[in-house]
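Notes from hallway chat w/ T.B., transcribed later so I don't forget. T.B. wanted the structure written out for a chain they're using in a teaching module, and asked if we could keep both sequence and structure tokens in one place. Agreed to drop them here.
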Amino acid sequence: EPEEIVARIGTLFGPRPLDGVRALVTAGPTREAIDPVRYISNHSSGKQGYAVASALAAAGAQVTLISGPVSLASPPGVERINVVSARDMHDAVIARCAGAAIFVGVAAVADYRPDDPAPQKIKKRSDQAAPTIDLIENPDIIAAVAARADRPFVVGFAAETQNTLEHARQKLTRKRLDMIAVNDVSDRSIGFESDSNAVTIITASGCERLERASKAEIARAIVDRICAVGHFPSHGRAAAIPSQ
């Protein structure tokens, strides 16, 4: 495809800032089963996470994308692992985290799951009250990565509907993140299904507003900030131009 041709041509011109650096990205929603038919989920389209994975690959990183259920093509040059539930995503991340220099948690991971999913479809019965669903907490993926002794540079995302900066700063501190990008999903023009976004990037040293742009542009800007703040060792070498 044209996008893949362009991406591969880009590898001929270097060095790139993340050549030789391993990166792990999560994207999309998770689904938590109620029964074999129904589940708890959210509106995440995966677009921003896929854009981040693509931008990291364009910067030279060796990217593994761990994705919840979405209807998107894999970015060129990116290894994709498909998962469904939060526990699936947690296990896939932990299995691949060793040796990664960058972790970007863009996925909208369900905080809770049904404690005891029904083995068969729950049938509606007029002679019974509506069933109740007891929820238990899912593992906190990004906090688990940040707590590792061999932790990578950890970037989180926060989709908020109110007090966006306050909640994002609390998450940055509570989960020991190096950077967080927060957006206000109550604004439907930059919400889950939109092709555009506007975020504020927060680190321990301050914050920076990225005004509304395409999710691809936002992703490239975030990767630029990761490269600037993360101080990754340079692995880049100028690629040889094929002789004619």
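Follow-up for T.B.: The CA atoms of residues 68 and 119 lie 22 Å apart. Might be a good example for the class.
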